[in-house]
Amino acid sequence: MHKLSRELMMTHVEVSRRNFMQRSALLLGASTIAPTVFGQTTLTVRPEWQSFKTTPRYDSFIKAVKLMKANTNANDPRSWSYWTNIHLYQCPHSAPYFLAWHRGYLYYFERQLRSVSGDTKLVLPYWDYYTNPALPAEFTNPNGGNPLYIQRVNTNVRQALTMAPFSSTLINFPRGTSKAFEPSFEGAPHNPVHDIIGSWMADLQSPTDPIFWLHHANVDRLWVAWVNAGGGRKMPALTNTYWSGSHTYMSSLTMARSSTYSTRTTLAYSYQSESLPSKLPLAQLTPADVHRVQATPEDLRAVLPAVGAFRLSPPRQTSEQTFALGGAFDVGLDERSISVQLPVSTESTQTLAQIATGSTALLPGNPKRYRSIELVLDDVEVSEIGKAGGYYYQVVLSIPVATAAASRSRTILIGTLGPFKINGAAHHHGGGPVQLRYRIDRSAFDKASSRSGAMSVWFVRVSGDQSPKGGVIGLGEVRLETSTEEQDP
Ligand SMILES: [Cu+2]
After folding, report:
1. Which domains does the chain have, with CATH numbers?
2. How many whole angstroms from 376 Cα to the centroid of ligand 1?
3. How far is the CA of 202 from the centre of ligand 1 (A)?
4. Ligand 1 centre from 203 Cα, in Å?
5. Using one digit for the tens of pLDDT, what is the confidence trace for 51-67?
6. What's the pLDDT score for residue 419?
């Protein structure tokens, strides 16, 4: 049996005998575990940091972090780097199971904290940055060998926050479906919190920074809150094949996906608060910040960035399934926002408008039926000064639409771009420039028109209190593509 599993099993208290057996099976990587019926188990409660730090658990947490950081054997589950490496090599970002994989990861890490500290009641705290966007002071004090301190670019994440994923229109869950919570939430606030804090947090080795664990506990909590919010929001049912199979952490450490469907069944924990934020921490924002971070399409229309001059990329077949409709080469991003025009022809615009109606569409001289639309950023690289983070970009598509009003455009926030996302993709693909694809909900192209000028992509820069000036990200090509793949597989 895996050493960690053995240790973890020994720390199981507060559970019924029956539950103990189920969890033991879980820790052995068994893939069929019947979830415990709610009510049979004592749920452990993960508190917000401000409550947590006043409890006796705080000293246990500090002790565990200290001991794990002092252990330099990366093969030992009792070392900090063991857990950083799991994230580096296994975490799915911009991929299915982003939230569910991290739920299991946090669960195992929390068990390890208990084991190392010897405190069987230790739980992982979360950081509610929608209430307190400044990093807790215990993490920023560099004195006295504080194990929670590490160098960071910024210690306030207010610029990373958005209410967008909590919109009542996002009712589906997984990546790959339309109107989905998970990819929206990963795009922001999840990625920008990594980017704005910067330094270790802007990289896949982000668990090196102890705040990672509180950030991800909050991410996990907001997923719980999203489910609780109701209003038609729905997870794939537990019987859905989505929950078949298991998450991998190490070859010897796995968890049935079905165990991560809910926190209250097999894993048996809950959060101090399980409701969605109702607003941004406005008191801490300047009017300019409010404008910037809320970034509804309506707001963005008022901040049209300067149009850059780039060499145009031609329409062409880019793979068996995809066709490029036009774009630009060699786009450099710095501390300014920029607009990149997409030279999409009148015929191609008609194709997009047809896809928007839900039907398939043809392109001139091409027998394929196209069904979905993506923005592709190709040969993406982060510069040396860009790597440490402190900034990110909102990626916005501006589409002329045919209405009675002259020269009207629709602006759609289609995602975010920052060093965390790029560093992650680069690592998973063995280094070097990466390709990033943003699926655009086809309804964005409803009544799309080429009448009032070219479509454009805006990279709206969002800077933290500290952020680098000069070239941070290079995009070899920015282009719009149609694909023969279904929008909703
Ligand atoms: Cu993360």
Report:
1. 3-271 (1.10.1280.10), 295-483 (2.60.120)
2. 23
3. 9
4. 9
5. 999 999 999 999 999 99
6. 97
